[in-house]
Design a protein that fits this description.
Blueprint (H helix, E strand, L loop, with lengths): L1 E2 L6 E3 L2 H14 L4 H17 L5 E6 L3 H15 L3 E6 L8 H13 L2 E2 L12 E5 L5 H4 L7 H11 L4 E5 L31 E6 L11 H5 L1 E5 L12 E3 L19 E6 L3 H4 L4 H13 L4 E6 L15 E2 L11 E4 L7 H11 L2 E4 L1 H8 L2 H9 L7 E3 L3 H8 L3 H6 L1 H12 L2 E4 L5 E3 L6 E2 L12 H14 L4 H17 L9 H6 L5
Parallel strand pairs: 3-4, 3-6, 4-5, 6-7, 7-8, 8-9, 10-19, 11-12, 11-14, 12-13, 14-15, 15-16, 16-17
Antiparallel strand pairs: 1-9, 2-10, 17-18, 18-19
Length: 506
Amino acid sequence: MHPITPQQPHPLFNTAATRRMEQQAASALPPHTLMQRAGLSVARLAQALAPHARTVWIACGPGNNGGDGLEAAMHLQREGRRVVVTWLGTPEHAPADARQSWQRALAAGVTWADEAPPDMTAADLCIDALLGIGIASTAPARAPDHRLLAALAALQHSPASVLAVDLPSGLDADTGQFAPGFALPAPHASRRPLAPRHTLSLLTLKPGLFTAAGRDAAGSVWLDDLGVTSQPEPPSTWLAGPALPAPRSHASHKGTYGDVAVVGGEGLVARGLGMTGAALLAASAALHAGAGRVLVALLDDGEMAIDMTQPELMFRRFDALALEQLTVVCGCGGGEAVRTVLPAVLARAARLVLDADALNAVASDAALRATVASRAGRGLPTVLTPHPLEAARLLGMSAADVQAHRLHAAQQLAEQFHCVAVLKGSGTVTATPGLPPTINPTGNARLATAGTGDVLAGMVGAHLAAGTPAQRAASEAVYQHGLAADRWPAARPLTASALARHITGG
């Protein structure tokens, strides 16, 4: 058993693969072995997380996830804890392994309760063993029953830490979204923070723990492979690790690290609006992420010729750019003006990052869509960096549909446009045609502020310009972007301009 940290990549397995691996392991081991190992692992982690806990409440569902909780109850009771179990199953209907664990818990002398203890402050630790990956088969259209809802509500509002067995109950292992009726309350709803949350993932790590609602719900994640070390199944997804080392040779120069051209920033004259800031943020990020030179072509009728705060940026007219030699970051603050330059950018840019208004223009124009898709056939790498609403426009669906299936949506974008797609959000997904997608483990809600997406686009551009392959360039930039936010001093406001200046390149 070990904690999952961002320091290395990890293979992730969807529900179908996990079930196949579980069935293969169970058939190769003596009966009840996997559940015994799982319950012991839960008990050990519970004691490590709450070494001074005297009372532990365990909510056990009717299936095998509940059986894992019953097995843990037996161990904790024998270790001298007062264990209170609410079991939603019955011996006559329980799976064979769960029934055996119920008998072991009964013999150990645990306390049984039909519902959560009325005074939840008496529990020092709560264990959620209600559903695990069983939500895929138990939560279709009908709502959960009242006892399950009551146990779930008690867990969600517990003042004590909560340890989830395999998955937080109601969370879909594949999507990171909650089934209807299961979602955690927002922290601001009760005007107090949620109690610390932990998840012990059993046998495999699941994608849903690391994207969408999964990151908040799971809290700190641990893995126990239950002694099943063989992995006959290929991973369905990867949890990204840190960037590969990229030391800079003494015998190098600015040309070694490539030229980035940022095209965007529709200005006051053109639209009566000032949107140059987005382009300047992307340019600043590209500069600080290590690009050799950064050119800026603002679509502002030549209103700006120098940025006095960053004189390293070189301003150019768009028609003066040698696009065939450049890595172009296009769309940041581009407004409607970006439509006039997009055909040339798509046709000629050697390497390309499309963001913001460029994505919206592509979404609404069939000819532009076709040109984006054709770039791969000409050996020209392209990276799209949409947030969920922009992805929805590109895919012709709602943002809610994108969020409901983030991995699938990112893969659809990659396949449809023959490019690398970066679907931003909690657990940003990077997808490439023909490869399993990756989920980024870094970043936090402090990135939810204007301009941080422009910073990411500029960072991807810098990685591309240095000659890094598109998939790796995108994944490494996303990881680095999130890591900078994770390391940001708690007392210091995070703004996009400050973030751009504190990104370090290879």
